[in-house]
Structures are given as C-alpha cells and as structure tokens.
Amino acid sequence: MTLVNGEPQDSISAHDRGLAYGDGVFRTLAVCDGKAQCWQRQFAKLSDDCGRLGIPSPAESLLRAEVAQVAQYLALGAVKIIVTRGQGERGYVTPSQPHPTRIVTGAPMPQFPPRNFDEGINVRLCELRLADQPRLAGIKHLNRLENVLARAEWSDPAISEGLLRDQRDNLIEGVASNLFIVVGGVLVTPDLSRCGVAGVTRERILAWADDNAMPTEVRDIPQAELLAAEEVMICNSLIGIWQVREIGSMGANGKRWERGTHTPTIRHYLTEYHV
Amino acid sequence: MTLVNGEPQDSISAHDRGLAYGDGVFRTLAVCDGKAQCWQRQFAKLSDDCGRLGIPSPAESLLRAEVAQVAQYLALGAVKIIVTRGQGERGYVTPSQPHPTRIVTGAPMPQFPPRNFDEGINVRLCELRLADQPRLAGIKHLNRLENVLARAEWSDPAISEGLLRDQRDNLIEGVASNLFIVVGGVLVTPDLSRCGVAGVTRERILAWADDNAMPTEVRDIPQAELLAAEEVMICNSLIGIWQVREIGSMGANGKRWERGTHTPTIRHYLTEYHV
After folding, report:
1. How far does CA B109 lie from the centroid of its chain?
2. Percent of chain B, pLDDT > 70?
3. What is the pTM of this model?
4. Do the Cβ atoms of B145 and A93 come within 8 Å?
5. Nearest CB to A145 within list B78, B105, B141
6. Domains observed in chain A
7. How far is the C-alpha of A235 from the C-alpha of A173, rounded, in Å?
8. Using CA atoms, how far apart are residues B159 and B172, in angstroms rounded to an integer?
9. CA distance to B115, B181, B205, per residue, from B260 (Å)
10. Burial B146-155 (b: 16+ CB within 10 A, else e)
11. Chain A: closest CA distance from residue B13 (Å)
C-alpha cells in the first residue's frame, strides 16, 4: 500500500523534483505486528536530513499516522518513506514556498536467507569508490547512483552485500548497510563525514555500546584494518545485524572469519529493545 | 504537454527507480518552429549516457516521434527528456529485464533577460565543491543534488549563474551550463572526466572551433586562470552562449570583463547552424 501526501495512490507528478534531481530523502523502517520500529530515531533522522537539504520536514504526527496506516496489516514488513521538495518551477532554483511530497509505502518484509542470520554472509569488495561530498555525507538522500552502480558489480546470489571504499581505500559502508568491525575489543564504525549514509541501526548499536561500557570509535578504517579485524558486521533496519564471514573477490587478500560473539549479542539487543 | 512512455499523462509510478535512486538520465533541447534542435547530437549523448549506466536506450525513432509530438505547437520552446531504468524489485539490484520509463515534456522557452545575450551576465563563484566521481562524470544523470545546493546559494536576480569548482579549485562548469574561457587566443573548456556534465552545446562549440581553425584545449582550469582569461562564456542548449562580464562574491578577487568578440561569433554559429 502506498500513500502519496496521505492519499492512497501509486503515482506522483512527473514534474516532481524528487525525480528531476533526486531532490529528497528517504528512510526504510522495519514493521513488527503492524508497528513501525524505532519511530523516534527514524523521524529524527528524516527531519535532520530534510533540514540539511533545506526541505521543510513533514510534521511528526502527520507522518506517524501515514506510517501507521500502511503498516497496520503487516505482521512483519518494511515501510519506505520518501520526502521530496515537491514540484518546482523549471530549473534548479528551489521554490520559495515548497510543498514537499510524502510517499509512504508498506510491503511485506523481504525474505532474507535464514543462514545470513545464523551463519553470516559472504561479501564482495566493490570496485566503485564513493566520492567525497561533505555537503551530502551521512544524508539518506535520493542521489543513489553510486549504490546502484556498485550493486550492479555482482549477480552471484552467494554474495549478500558489497563493501564500499572511498578514494583513499578507507572502508565506508555496505551498498545498503552500515559497517562495524571489532579491533582489540573496540567496536569501530567508519567516519561518515565525507561520504556514506548514517543509518539508524548504526546509531542504535553505538548507543548500545555506550550503555554497556563497550569502547567505540568512529573513524577511518583502512582496508588492511578490515582484514585484520576480529569480527566484521553489517547492519540496517531490515536485516538487523549480519556477521561477515568471508570477503571474496579480493584475490590473495580474501579472508574468512570464525563465528564471532559480538554479532549475536548485538542482534539480541536490536531485537529486544526497539529504541 | 507531457508524454510518459508515449501516453499523454503527467504522472509516473511512485515506485520508479528514477525517483527512488535518481537512476536515469535527461536532456534539455531547444525547440524552434516546432522542431527540436540538434536532435542527432542530443540523442547520441542520451544514448551514450544510458549506456554508461547500463540502461537500455530507447529507440531513436520512438523518442524522436515523441519529441516531435510535444514540440509541434511550440514556436520557441524547450523539451526535456528523462529516461529512467523504470520500476524495479525492492533494493538497489538492477532488474534483469528493465523496462525504462520515458518522460518527454514540451514547454514554452523560459523568458531570459535580453541583456544576458546583448551585454552578458554577472555570475557567482559557488561555495559548494563538486565531488570527483569518474564513474558518473560527464553524464547528465538524475543525481543533481550538488546543483540544487549550489543554486540555493544565491537569490539575487542580478546573478544569472553560479560557477562550480572541484575540490582542488579547478573551474568545472556552471550550475546549469558549461564553461569556456579564452586564454592567449585559445578556447579552453574544463576537462569533465572527474565531475561535471558534458553538454551538447559544449560539444558543438568545440566542433565549430575545430572547423574554424581556432585552437582548443580541454583541460583543468585553475581559479587564477579564470580571472586572467581574456573572455569567459557559459553555454547550454536553451541560452546558447552568454558572456560572463562580472564575477561577484569573490571579494578582492572580483573581476569585470569588457565586451568580448568571441561570444557573438560563437552565438552566430549556434543560431545559424543547428548541427
């Protein structure tokens, strides 16, 4: 089910700036028993992202009601929210009085392979390098061609995710996930101030670590450090957290990891506490 | 008038990848007496851009007919073509059998101030720096948030365009135009292999210079060279070519230019020969 500005419909204006320029933001939320998970964090991030692009954020109560409406019959589902700057005059100039477009879609949860949760995943190191753009870094915006091109690098279904590097060989994120590694007992996640998308699950895991006195660092992760890490994990709102068990396509630099202890601990937290 | 996949309508699917990811390309064409200008070059570039993203290009005859249909009653107009990868499954993975979406819109030509043609324009040097992404450089794709943010830097109607630099202070382009400078009698335009959009008018001007034994160079243009140039021009398919007469917002580095001789010569060519 899709609501566009609150009305059940499956189409938007062909002149929306979300299409013309990718001028908007989005979020993906898990739904459990008809209830969207981690709503406060998700809305706060959506609203922040709108602010960084100068798009007026929808009111929290309005969006919450629309999300509740599309989620209500989903036992286990996914809700996607898109907010664009709406229609505009011709050209890049932003309308002085924008009327943002809200697109809220609910769907059943994708079927992820159970072994991804139980045993972990194989990933690929993508060739595409993310560009540095501090003005857009961290924002879950609609300019996602880098992710599209990176995802098009492989079709082998045994590869569950691709890891993305910046142009200096630092690891940044997965194509559709954030990255954590454990190094010397410290939970490390890449600095996303130059590129990458800062997801809500990443934020939740950092908060969990703080609450549980596990040391964390947010900083650059060079490729060599990834390979030397004790445990590697990816996360997002739909999958929760998966351990990376193998990196393929690295030739001599390929690497396998034993089953780790941090992934199940963090998954337990993500599953039990929806804050 | 707008045609979506050949049908007169003003809406597209809310699940189109053009909206979700900016997964598509576009072109803007001038229309004169109901006829789209420079069609062969425009189609060739659109088709190349589709190829670089792995989107099947629409057939030339099909698109030409749709452009002709929206252009037919326009004495002086603009046609915008968008081609997206169409609807897809959930997530970044590209559909194995994509059905691209074609959106073709015709509208009257925007009213540009006559003095922009006769006397030239004032421009601003934008603060936003374009990110290096060789995989996307040159393509007129739908990921245009950098242009949106740069255009939002000013609202003074006396400023007709903003010039964009890369992260090493090289000039790359205007927000919605390409850039040429004349240095020692050589026509120089920025190298667009790391960022920027390669427009058809830029290509036409380079071809004109070759045909007329005017030396050209496609290379990096440092900021200091811009200020020292004998003549500075911007171009695109709708405006043709405008001379830059003044750069503001550069503080002590601001600069004014006298009326140049190259701009009217090139404009004459662009207006008279539509190849």
Report:
1. 15
2. 97
3. 0.97
4. no
5. B141
6. 2-108 (3.30.470.10), 114-272 (3.20.10.10)
7. 9
8. 18
9. 15, 11, 16
10. bbbbbbbebe
11. 4
Task: Test A91 with B82 for CB contact under 8 angstroms.
Answer: no
Q: Do the Cβ atoms of B89 and B95 come closer than 8 Å?
A: yes
**Residue B133, both tokens:** 């992404």
Nearest CA in chain A to B128: A135
Structural contact between residues B163 and B126, judged by C-beta atoms closer than 8 angstroms: yes
Residues 133-192 of B with CB under 8 A from A: 133, 135-136, 141-152, 167, 175-176
Return the half-sphere exposure (C-beta side, CA atoms, 13 A cut-off) of residue A86: 17
pLDDT in tens, A184-206: 999 999 999 999 999 999 999 99
CA A145 to chain centre: 15
Contacts of B131 in chain A (CB under 8 A): 131-133
**Out of A14, A103, A167, closest to residue B132 by CB:** A167
pLDDT at B252: 56
Packing angle, helices B39-53 and B200-211, rounded to 10: 120
Q: Give the A:B interface size as CB pairs under 8 Å.
A: 163
Q: What percent of chain A has pLDDT over 90?
A: 93
Average pLDDT over residues A2-30: 98
Cα–Cα distances (Å) from B254 to B235, B251, B262, in that order, read: 21, 6, 22
Mutate to test the interface with B, among A7, A12, A102, A140 (most CBs of B within 10 A): A12
pLDDT, greater one: A274 or A95: A95
Determine the Cα–Cα distance for residues B52 and B57; give it in Å rounded to an integer.
10
**Residue of B11, B13, B160 for testing the chain A interface, max A β-carbons within 10 Å:** B11
Q: Do B144 and A145 make contact, defined as CB atoms within 8 angstroms?
A: no
Please report residues of A whose CB lies closer than 8 A to that of B93. 151-152
A161 burial type by CB count under 10 A (0-12 exposed, 13-18 middle, 19+ buried): buried
List pLDDT tens digits, range B13-64: 999 999 999 999 999 999 999 999 999 999 999 999 999 999 999 999 999 9
Q: Is residue B272 scored above 90 in pLDDT?
A: no
Could you tell me if A54 lies within 8 Å of chain B, comparing CB atoms?
A: yes
pLDDT tens sequence across A77-104: 999 999 999 998 779 999 989 999 999 9
Contacts of A110 in chain B (CB under 8 A): 90-91
Taking CB atoms and an 8 Å cutoff, what residues of chain A touch B16?
19
Q: Which residue is it, tokens 């811009």?
A: B226
Options B66, B161, B173, B231, the catalytic residue = B173
Residues of B in contact with A4 (CB under 8 A): 14
Number of H helices, E strands in chain A: 8, 17
Bridge partner list, B76: B32
